[in-house]
Structure formats: structure tokens, C-alpha cells
Amino acid sequence: MQTRLEKLFKLFIGLLTVLAVAVLGFVIFFIVKEALPLFKEVSLGDFLLGTRWLPIAYAGEATFGIFNFIAATLVVSFLAMIIAAFAGIGAAIFLSCVASEKARSLLYPFIDLLAGIPSVIYGFIGLVVLVRLFMKAGVHTGSCVMAAAILLSIMLLPYIISSCSETILKAKQRYLASSNAMGISSWYGIAHVVLPASWGNIMLSMILAIGRAMGETMAVMMVIGNANLFPRLFGKSETIAAVIALEMGTAEAGSLHYHALYAAGLVLIIMLLLINALIGALRAKLIKEA
Prior knowledge:
Elements: H1 4-35, H2 44-49, E1 53-54, E2 63-64, H3 67-98, H4 101-116, H5 119-136, H6 145-181, H7 186-214, H8 218-223, H9 240-247, H10 256-289
Antiparallel strand pairs: 1-2
Helix pairs in contact: 1-10, 3-6, 3-7, 4-6, 5-6, 6-7, 7-10, 9-10
């Protein structure tokens, strides 16, 4: 029988779960409520596929098209994930299969420290280092999509390294000894046994990293150039999160500009929810295959 303390703890956890779901539901409800008035004036197609963003009608009619912002968000996030995946998986293999237990215990705190650095500090370093490097390389002003992707990939590294190294270490402990007993070299076993066994969870880590990247605001905003242009590697662009951060403070409450920014936020939330749904589907598949 459960003790009274166990029942109270179970009830407390249940209440916290309900509270978390209720808060998420309230946030989504509020954003949807503030976004819907825009679509009385602007069609969904024009909003999602339009490339002109002129929220204040200085000359002519105001237009609200976020296609370039959506494209920039996706391009920067996927580029950052690809760069971080190569470096992160390599670091995870080193920590799991090469480094000793003592070395791992010394290195893990430094990796965790990377995750705790505020994004504005990353942005400042990007301005001082990355932007200047791109300027010296011939990129006008130095601010570009590639600079934002490199900076964002550095911010993603601790998440990928931590999750991948744990997965690879478990697979190594499970399979590598048997592989070595059969006369297979350690590196061949790592490449053809350990990594394939870990690939499912590595993919989950990468998808989770994309979701983390899409929501990043400050660091990306400081180095991407913030121009409503279709993303090119060495050209300026602007993400959804950046345009919301830059313009929400100047948008008049209740104006079309105000509702358009909430609608852009709703699009970003839907993109993140789709990524989380994909993570859930992959996790369920992995559990079923295990």
C-alpha cells in the first residue's frame, strides 16, 4: 500500500503537470487570439508567401509578408545544426571512446559551462570576432547568414555533445567488448557497431538542436544583419525571432503591425511543435524497435 506521503507526492507531481500544460495552453491561446485579427485584413497566403514586410505605410499600403523570415530561420537553424553535428559528434566520440573516466569528469563541466553562457555574450563575441573575420574575408559589413550559423552552432555544441556522448558511451559499454573479443579493432567496432547502434538517439539530439536553434534570438540578431532579404550564405537576412524582438517594442498595441508580429510568433510556435511531434514519433519508433 502507498503511504500518505507517497500519495501526496504523486498528487503534487500531477498538479505540476497540469499546471505546465495549462500554462502552455494559455500561452498558445493568447498568441492565437492576438494573431487572428491580422487575417481579417491579410490573407494567409500573402502572409506566409509574401516577401515584402512594410508594417508602416509611409508611402502606399502596409504589407506583411514573412516568407524571407521563415526561410532565414530554417536556413540558419539547419546550417548551425549541420556544423554543430560534425563537431559535436566528433567530440562525443572522443569523450566516450578515447578519453579516460578522469578526463571525462574534467571536461564535462566545461561543456556544461558553454550551455550556461548568456546568448548576448555569444552575440558580443560574434560581433567582435566572427563579423570582423568575415569583413576581412571580403563580406560587406561582415554580418551574414553564415556568421549567424557558425555562432549558433557553437551555442548548440554542449547540447549535442552531452546527449551524444552519453548515448555512444552506453553503446560502447554494451557492444565494444564483444566486438574486440571477435578480433575486430576498436576503431572499426566504433565505426561499424557503436555508431550505428547510437544513430537513432543521435538523430533525436540533432532534431532537438534544430528546435533550440530556431528559437534563438539575441545572438543571431546581433550578427545576421537584420535585413528582409532571402537568405544567402554571405548575405544579410533576418529570422522570425529577430524581427519580433526588434519591432515589438515599437508596434502600437492593437495595430496590424502588432497582430502581424504575434502571427509571426504563431508560425514559429507551429514550426517548433512540428519538430517536437517529429521527436515524439522517432522516440516512439526507437522504443518499439528496442
